[in-house]
UniProtKB/TrEMBL annotation:
<dbReference type="GO" id="GO:0140291">
    <property type="term" value="P:peptidyl-glutamate ADP-deribosylation"/>
</dbReference>
<dbReference type="GO" id="GO:0140293">
    <property type="term" value="F:ADP-ribosylglutamate hydrolase activity"/>
</dbReference>
<feature type="domain" description="Macro">
    <location>
        <begin position="19"/>
        <end position="200"/>
    </location>
</feature>
<protein>
    <recommendedName>
        <fullName>Macro domain-containing protein</fullName>
    </recommendedName>
</protein>
<comment type="similarity">
    <text>Belongs to the MacroD-type family. MacroD1/2-like subfamily.</text>
</comment>
<dbReference type="GO" id="GO:0042278">
    <property type="term" value="P:purine nucleoside metabolic process"/>
</dbReference>
<dbReference type="GO" id="GO:0006974">
    <property type="term" value="P:DNA damage response"/>
</dbReference>
<dbReference type="GO" id="GO:0005654">
    <property type="term" value="C:nucleoplasm"/>
</dbReference>
<keyword id="KW-0378">Hydrolase</keyword>
C-alpha cells in the first residue's frame, strides 16, 4: 500500500509548497489512488469483489479472488444466502493479503445504461463503503464493478465509481483513509486517469 502513490503524489504535487493541505491528511487527493493490476495482491483492509447473486464464485475478478483466497472463502460465502443487486456482504480474506472481502453484486447492464442500472451501480459503491466503515476498516480497493461480464459501459461506470466515492469521502471525512481504484484493462486505466484529474483535481 505504501508503494502505491496517492493521487496527489502521482501528479507531482506532493511538495512542501502545498504542504498545508497535505499535512492535514484530509485532502481528498491524499486518499485516492489509481492502480492497474491484479486486485488480489493488494494489502488493504478490504478488497471489493464484483460478485454474482449466488456469491459462490464465477469468472473475472470474482474467480481470481476465490482462487487467491482459497476454499474457506467459498465456505463462508456459502453460508451467506446470496446477495441482491446493489447490496454488499463482507467475509474474511483468508489467504489474501487483504483482511476482508466485500462482495457486491453489480447490475447486469448488457450495454444499456438506464436509471436502474445507474442506481444499482451507485448502491454497490455506497453499500461497500458503508460496510467498510461499519466494520471500522479504513482502506479499500475497488475493481471496475459490472464492466466485465455484466456489460456496463466503461466510461459511465467510471464516472459513477469516482463521483460516488468522492461524495462518500466528503460526507464521511474521518473514516476512510485510502481508496484504490484497481483497474485491470488499459482502456479503464485511460478513462480513470482522465476523469480523476478532473474529479480529484487539487483544491
Ligand atoms: P462483472 O461481472 O461485475 O462485470 P467482471 O469480473 O467480469 O465483473 O469484470 C469487472 C472488472 O474486473 C473488469 O474490468 C475486469 O477486467 C476486471 N478484472 C478481472 N480480473 C481482475 C483482477 N484479478 N483484478 C482486478 N480486476 C480484475
Amino acid at each position: 500500500l505504501d508503494k502505491i502513490p496517492t493521487w496527489r503524489e502521482e501528479n507531482g504535487s506532493n511538495d512542501k509548497e502545498e504542504g498545508k493541505v497535505l499535512k492535514s491528511g484530509r485532502g481528498i487527493n491524499d486518499k485516492v489512488s489509481l492502480y492497474k493490476g491484479d486486485i488480489t495482491v493488494l494489502e488493504v483492509d478490504a478488497i471489493v469483489n464484483a460478485a454474482n447473486p449466488s456469491l459462490l464464485g464465477g469468472g473475472g475478478v470474482d474467480g481470481c479472488i476465490h482462487k487467491a483466497a482459497g476454499s474457506c472463502l467459498y465456505d463462508e460465502c456459502h453460508s451467506l444466502n446470496g446477495c441482491d443487486t446493489g447490496k454488499a456482504k463482507i467475509t474474511c480474506g483468508y489467504d489474501l493479503p487483504a483482511r476482508y472481502v466485500i462482495h457486491t453484486v453489480g447490475p447486469v447492464a448488457r450495454g444499456h445504461v438506464g436509471p436502474t442500472e445507474k442506481n444499482d451501480l451507485t448502491s454497490c459503491y455506497q453499500n461497500s463503503l458503508r460496510l467498510l466503515t461499519e466494520n471500522n476498516l479504513s482502506t479499500v480497493a475497488f475493481p471496475c464493478i459490472s464492466t466485465g461480464i455484466y456489460g456496463f459501459p466503461n466510461d459511465p461506470a467510471a464516472e459513477i465509481a469516482l463521483n460516488t466515492v468522492k461524495s462518500w469521502i466528503e460526507e464521511n471525512p474521518d473514516k476512510i483513509t485510502r481508496v484504490i481504484f484497481c483497474v485491470f484493462l488499459e482502456t479503464d486505466f485511460g478513462i480513470y486517469k482522465k476523469k480523476m484529474s478532473v474529479i480529484f483535481q487539487d483544491n
